[in-house]
Amino acid sequence: MKYLASLFLLLIFFGVSTPVVFAQQDLGTAYETVTEGIGVTARQAGFEDVMTLPEMIGALVNVVLSLTGLAFLILLIYGGIMYLTATGDPEKAKKAVRLITQAVIGIVILLSAYAIAQFVFAQLNANITG
Questions:
Q1: pTM score > 0.70 for this model?
Q2: Does the pLDDT at position 21 exceed 60?
Q3: DSSP category for residue 81
Q4: Mean pLDDT computed over 24-53
Q5: Quick one: average pLDDT of 72-86?
Q6: What are the angstrom distances between the C-alpha of 19 and each of 14, 22, 35?
Q7: More confident of the two residues 130 and 128
Q8: How far out from the chain centre does Cα 31 lie?
Q9: Residue 75 carries which DSSP code?
Q10: If you ran DSSP here, which 8-state letter would residue 49 be given?
Q11: Alpha carbons 121 and 70: distance in angstroms, whole number
Q12: End-to-end distance of the chain based on CA atoms, in angstroms?
């Protein structure tokens, strides 16, 4: 009973606190409204070159993916150094090989994420502007 009361209160909270969503609005109109608002804010802040929303999100994703790729590269180099300095100890060599394998898998996942992000951004850009 206590569980049901908590669930009921949670549903009421989310039902009252969530704003109304106007799903009927055209995507192009909403995009233009957001872009215009960002442009006004940027000009008031003193920025001349205003990026659009997809450009900002794309730049943020590229920065995050680049930093993550750098981290995996450092792990790969560290694993290589661990392997070279294992000096015949099978436990250290196994640990180094495991780290290298995980770094390579991470890089593959990262490249896949980058390809998917580029595809999604291209499709969103085509749907919004075209």
A1: no
A2: no
A3: H
A4: 71
A5: 93
A6: 9, 10, 21
A7: 128
A8: 20
A9: H
A10: S
A11: 23
A12: 53
Two tokens at 58? 């794309």
DSSP state of 48: S
**Sequence ranges of the domains in the chain:** 1-50, 52-130
Confidence at 25, pLDDT banded by 50, 70, 90: low
Q: How many CB atoms lie within 10 A of CB 15?
A: 8
Give φ, ψ of 116 to 5 degrees: -65, -45
pLDDT band with cut points at 50, 70 and 90 for residue 34: confident
Task: Decide which of 38 and 90 is more confident.
Answer: 90
- Closest by alpha carbon to 61, among 113, 126, 127? 113
In the block, residue with structure tokens 């930093």? 67
User: What are 108's two structure tokens?
Assistant: 């593959």
The alpha carbon dihedral of 55, 57, 61, 66 has a sign of: positive
Q: What is the mean pLDDT of the chain?
A: 79
DSSP H helices, the chain, are 2-17, 27-44, 53-84, 90-129
Find, among 30, 29, 50, 26, the residue nearest to 38 by Cα.
50
